[in-house]
């Protein structure tokens, strides 16, 4: 909006200080000042008034289909009428003949009168064409900004919906974990509750923020993995390795957790050997996440993909053209997610 205001100001200054004075020099109206100074001054003022009426009242209302367009048409009619009166000045004004007698000059021939009339209408038409051209460009730019703002709000609402889908997923999984520890009277219950409170605070404080530091996101993932490890037995092999070059670099909150959640939800078994291996690296402006998990025989291909479409859509909104995501079964029968994000590009 500030850019539009500045451009509008520059256009107004260019018209008032450059275009209109240049028109006065180019077209044959210089004799108006010496012969009819009052007419000349009034006409110039009328051209300025015409410009601002068209620029800020008529043109903006012509793009609407309600009563405002009628007001614009009425204003156009009034401006045409006033201009027509100016074009008749040499013919109808008694001051014309008085002035001619005082100067003891020869009467202006008919062709001279017509030339004056043509000059009046020519100035008016040039001003109107200039206003229409500027108004159409301004309206096109305004509509473009409106579309971009609408798209931004739509994407923002869609992202909020995706976050709302992530939070219940995490809560249900975590509550199931705590419930399992409670019914078995595990001594890990207290630690699980502490981690649960920490994770809940993170979601409450950061889920609505646009950006957080990568260090906070890594800490959140670490707490989540630690909480999941409390319910696992000796069959599970869980590894989390991360290398962060710049811990203060900004990322979108809760961006990676769904991949980690899916690995634990669909890759862990309580009675057969299983594993979840997570590697997170950030260097040279790139964020790399590699999640590999075992695939129990009971899991279907559809269940392994649950939640990933959500992530794909969110990534396409947050990092369009700046990320790559590959996920699926590998040749050795494991499920692997490879995500690369260019987090510094804008």
Structure description:
The protein is an alpha+beta fold and 346 residues long. It contains twelve helices and seven strands. The protein has helices at 2-26, 30-35, 37-62, 67-87, 89-92, 94-103, 110-183, 189-206, 214-229, 257-267, 301-304, 308-318, and strands at residues 212-213, 236-244, 250-251, 274-283, 286-293, 323-329, 335-342. A five-stranded mixed beta sheet has the order 2-4-5-7-6, with helices on one face. A two-stranded antiparallel ribbon has the order 1-3. A hairpin with a 5-residue loop joins strand 6 (323-329) and strand 7 (335-342). Helix 3 runs antiparallel to helix 4 (67-87) and helix 8 packs antiparallel against helix 9. The longest helix has 74 residues, at 110-183. The radius of gyration is 37 Å and the shape is rod-shaped.
What share of residues is helical?
55-70%
Apparent shape: rod-shaped
Q: For the largest beta sheet, what order do the strands appear in spatially?
A: 2-4-5-7-6
Q: Averaging pLDDT over every residue, what do you get? A: 77
Number of helices: 12
Order of helices and strands: HHHHHHHHEHEEHEEHHEE
- Low confidence ranges: 91-100, 102-106, 108-112
What is the count of β-strands?
Answer: 7
Percentage beta strand:
5-15%
What's the N-to-C terminus distance? 21 Å
Q: Which class of secondary structure composition applies to the elements?
A: alpha+beta
**What composes the largest sheet?**
5 strands, mixed
Radius of gyration: 37 Å
């Amino acid at each position: 909006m500030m850019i539009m205001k500045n451009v509008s100001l520059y256009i107004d200054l260019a018209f008032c200080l450059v275009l209109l004075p240049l028109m006065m020099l180019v077209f044959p109206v210089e004799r108006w000042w010496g012969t009819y100074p009052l007419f000349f001054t009034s006409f110039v003022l009328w051209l300025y008034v015409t410009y601002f009426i068209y620029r800020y009242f008529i043109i903006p209302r012509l793009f609407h289909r309600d009563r405002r367009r009628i007001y614009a048409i009425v204003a156009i009619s009034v401006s045409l009428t006033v201009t027509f009166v100016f074009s008749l000045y040499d013919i109808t004004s008694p001051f014309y003949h008085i002035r001619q007698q005082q100067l003891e000059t020869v009467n202006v021939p008919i062709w001279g009168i017509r030339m004056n009339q043509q000059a009046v209408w020519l100035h008016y038409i040039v001003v109107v064409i200039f206003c229409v051209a500027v108004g159409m460009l301004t309206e096109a730019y305004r509509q473009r900004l409106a579309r971009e703002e609408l798209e931004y709000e739509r994407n923002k609402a869609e992202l909020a919906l995706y976050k709302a889908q992530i939070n219940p997923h995490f809560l249900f999984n975590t509550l199931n974990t705590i419930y399992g520890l409670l019914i078995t009277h595990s001594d890990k219950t207290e630690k699980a509750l502490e981690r649960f409170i920490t994770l809940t605070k993170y979601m409450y404080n950061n889920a609505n923020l646009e950006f957080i530091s990568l260090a906070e996101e890594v800490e959140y993932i670490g707490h989540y993995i630690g909480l999941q490890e409390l319910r696992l037995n000796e069959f599970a092999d869980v590894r989390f390795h991360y290398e962060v070059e710049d811990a203060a670099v900004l990322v979108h909150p809760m961006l990676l957790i769904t991949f980690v959640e899916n690995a634990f939800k669909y890759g862990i078994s309580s009675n057969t050997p299983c594993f979840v291996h997570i590697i997170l690296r950030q260097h040279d402006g790139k964020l790399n996440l590699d999640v590999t998990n075992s695939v129990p025989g009971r899991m279907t291909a559809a269940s392994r993909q649950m939640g990933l479409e959500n992530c794909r859509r969110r990534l396409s909104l947050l990092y369009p053209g700046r990320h790559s995501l590959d996920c699926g079964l590998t040749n050795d029968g494991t499920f692997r997610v490879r995500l690369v994000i260019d987090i510094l590009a804008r």
